[in-house]
Design a protein that fits this description.
about 350 residues, alpha/beta, Aspartate Aminotransferase, domain 1, 3-stranded antiparallel sheet, about 15% strand, binds pyridoxal-5'-phosphate
Length: about 350
């Protein structure tokens, strides 16, 4: 607290990211990073970029990258906005598209950055409870609002919502923006990107941090109607004209172009997840169905805090959100390599 701080800053409750401990030999299953490295083509592109040209500013609008993203989805460059991680894309979205008189709606259990952006941009919101099976119920969102946002699959539950349900929401909710945060969609959930041509109020956000193994590069994007994209560019150019540096643009282009590598890593993660779910179920965990690269699980007898601390003693870290009460007994476990998951299961056999 300081007399020098603005009134707004006094009242902020910032987001707390999962920890990045500086310990060797750690099995890190707490922040949903990809256990596999990025495409080798990305590394080559980055090396090429390490040159004298770094004295020059990067392309402010990342046109080549936006074109690469557009062609991945068979869209136009004008349908794509890019930012320094999808967190930045989301921040600009809250500011540009979700700040209206009526409160915005999002689930009670969801990505905990959403209420933080509401605090930063002074946006009022209403949380909509997930049902007892931790599912989003579209009917609960069919009321007047300033905008709607949720991840699909949802975080930290991992549960997916069917595309037909999203379309049902879009058919009714036509006068405010609907944002689908598809950070984890490539691990087996149906994408809403196909709907953007039909619904001008739909914005879909993505990140290269998870399915494209580039959390360290910080690239995210949004796709939608050019009118929504234009609003995001207005905010970007009132904030930071060069959010993506030369490395980020070059690496992200290579990642978007190497579709084969991307599909192969996603398939590996999905196969490991299937196996992990079975092993955890055998150990007495209740595991929610997951369409993501993590699972959300609760042991039928053993306390989550005890399990999480016991794993930590063995250099395995998972994420334990202690709040709200409904999820206090759940652990969110990132799907690692087969070897990492085997190590996890073997420690859990001792613990539970
Ligand atoms: C990881 C994540 C993001 C942020 O991704 P970055 O591109 O790394 O900023 C956004 N939304 C959800 C739901 C996430 O889990």
């Amino acid at each position: 607290m300081s007399q020098y701080w603005s009134h707004l800053i006094h009242g902020l409750t910032p987001y707390v990211p999962g920890e990045q401990p500086k310990i060797n030999n750690l099995i890190k299953l707490n922040t949903n990073e990809n256990p596999y490295g990025p495409s080798p083509k990305v590394l080559i592109a980055l090396q090429k970029e390490a040159s004298e040209s770094l004295r020059l500013y990067p392309d402010p609008n990342s046109d080549v990258l936006r074109k690469a993203i557009a062609s991945f989805y068979d869209l136009e460059t004008s349908n794509v906005f890019v930012g320094n991680g999808s967190d930045e894309v989301l921040a600009h979205t809250f500011n540009a598209l979700l700040k209206h008189d009526k409160p915005i709606l999002f689930p009670d259990i969801t990505y905990s950055f959403y209420p933080v952006y509401c605090g930063l941009y002074e946006i009022t919101f209403e949380t909509i409870p997930l049902n007892d099976s931790f599912e989003i119920q579209v009917d609960d969102y069919l009321k007047p609002n300033g905008g709607i946002i949720f991840p699909n699959p949802n975080a930290p539950t991992g549960r997916s919502l069917a595309l037909s349900e999203i379309e049902r929401l879009l058919k009714t909710n036509t006068s405010s923006v609907v944002v689908i945060d598809e950070a984890y969609v490539d691990f087996g959930t149906e994408s809403s990107v196909a709907l953007i041509k039909k619904y001008p109020q739909l914005l879909v956000t993505h990140t290269l941090s998870k399915a494209r193994s580039l959390a360290g590069l910080r690239v995210g994007y949004a796709v939608g109607n050019p009118d929504l994209i234009e609003a995001l560019h207005r905010v970007k150019d009132s904030f930071n004209s060069y959010p993506l540096d030369r490395f980020a643009q070059a690496g992200a282009i290579a990642a978007m172009e190497d579709k084969a590598y991307f599909e192969e890593t996603c398939h590996k993660v999905i196969a490991t997840r299937t196996h992990l779910v079975k092993e955890l179920t055998d150990l007495g965990f209740e595991v929610l169905p997951s369409g993501a690269n993590f699972i959300f699980a609760k042991h039928t007898k053993k306390d989550a805090e005890v399990i999480s601390a016991g794993l930590r003693d063995k250099n395995i870290i998972v994420r334990h959100f202690k709040k709200p009460e409904r999820i206090a007994q759940f652990l969110r476990i990132t799907v690692g390599t087969d070897a990492e998951c085997a190590a996890l299961v073997s420690e859990l056999k001792q613990l539970v």
